Amino acid sequence: MEETPIVPERHRPVVDVWTRLSETKKPIIMYGMGDGAEKILAVMDGLGIKPADFMASDEFVRGHSFKGYRVKKLSEIEELYDDFIVVICFGSALPDVLEKIEHIREKYETYAPDVPVIGEGLFDGDYISDHEFEIMTLNSILADRESKDCLDAIMRYRISGDIGDLRSCETPKGDALELLNIGKNETYVDLGAYSGDTVEEFLNLTGKRFNKIYAVEPDRRNYSKLRRRLYYISGALLDARNIAVWSSDTKLMFYNKSGRNSSFTDNISEETKGRGYETEARSVDSILGGKPATLIKYDVEGSEKEALHGTEQTIKTYKPKLIVSLYHRVGDLIELPLLVHELNPEYKLYIRHHPYVPAWDTNLYCI
Asked: Is-contact 318 293, C-beta < 8 A?
């Protein structure tokens, strides 16, 4: 007889979201278009789940069609169906959007299924069973009760798709940043600096008092915006680079798919060259050249594992404070904290989720 994995009950919702969608007799209404809908539809199609309709917020409904469906307003959906399930297919942290989602949840059964931003697979019951030991190890090394509860809630959400599970563990970003005790003499390394917005957040936190900033952004257009935005910082204080970060110094293919879906591969071939462009990649240890850093942020669209490996010497020698995104790939939530602990067991590890649906702003804070 097969042994049942020992997993706390709160990790095991009664019904996972895909089972619920498979078994329901209610019409399934997809809320949103684009890449998120594509990914969720791919899973549904594999399970034989068919949507009844698509809808979008009123301001976005202008005769759009998606996958052969005319995209409708909620009011039109309500005229067609007495009751239905809403499947959220987009991500947002905007308060007015989150409030709109809450209003829908009050009236209708609503889910935001978890699918990876980058890569394949699902964080489902099989994943938990296969990684039971790693999950228990991570839970044992987290620094506080809030981190353990957050891990539990995020895992539960990833199975259930229940937005209530996700929103139950929200922490304002400012509260999480207080864990790091960011001072006035930091050497800040911003990996995935985008258009300079997170550099400006750092400048606001420090009152523009700092030692040095390294800003790394591989996307050419974002890098141009970053340089324009941070024009007032002298070259002696800002080292901005239009490159990627990796575990070693190499060349990568960069695929710009607009925003959160841009990604890298180190498999450069004639085929991949036609679908992206080659860019220089450096390890953080190489960028710093043996110099110290005091604060490093990793938000590199699924390359966090490689970037951490490329920071090994800096982490072991200088023990910088770390902020690591935990939501791009299926295994990030479990694997990345364990990797940091492996690189330097002295770190205290905190997991926090900031207001966002789905779980795209879940981060690891390390001191």
From this structure: yes
CA–CA separation, 54 vs 86, rounded Å? 9
Give the strand order in the sheet containing 263-265: 244-245, 277-282, 250-255, 263-265
Read off the pLDDT of residues 153-174 as tens digits, 9 standing for 90 and up.
Answer: 999 999 999 999 999 999 999 9
Is residue 325 within 8 A of residue 337, CB to CB? The reply is no
What's the confidence (pLDDT) of residue 263? 55
Distance, CA of 104 to CA of 109 (rounded, Å): 8
Q: Which residues are bridge partners to 245 per DSSP? A: 282
Contact 89/31 with Cβ under 8 angstroms? yes
Given a cut of 50, the residues of the chain with pLDDT beneath it are: 1-9, 11-14, 258-261, 268-273
The pTM score is: 0.90
Angle of helix 332-343 relative to helix 145-160, nearest 10 degrees, comes to: 150
Q: What is the pLDDT of residue 196?
A: 96
Distance CA 219, CA 259 (A): 9
Per the rule left: phi > 0, alpha: psi between -120 and 50, beta: everything else, 297 is beta
The answer for residues whose C-beta is within 8 angstroms of residue 192's C-beta and 6 or more apart is 198, 216, 217, 297, 298, 299, 300, 301, 325
Burial class of residue 235, CB neighbours in 10 A (0-12, 13-18, 19+): exposed
Q: Give the pLDDT score at 261.
A: 47
Q: 298-330 burial, b if ≥16 CB within 10 A, otherwise e? A: bbbbbbbbbbbbbbbebbeebbbbbbbbbbbbb
Q: Are 13 and 160 in contact (CB under 8 A)?
A: yes
Q: Which amino acid is at 293?
A: A
Q: What is the pLDDT of residue 12?
A: 45
What three-state secondary structure class fits 16?
coil
pLDDT, residue 6, reads 39
**Calpha distance 354→91 (Å, rounded):** 13
pLDDT of residue 319: 98
Per-residue pLDDT, 15:
76
Domains present along the chain, CATH in parentheses: 14-113 (3.40.50.20), 173-366 (3.40.50.150)
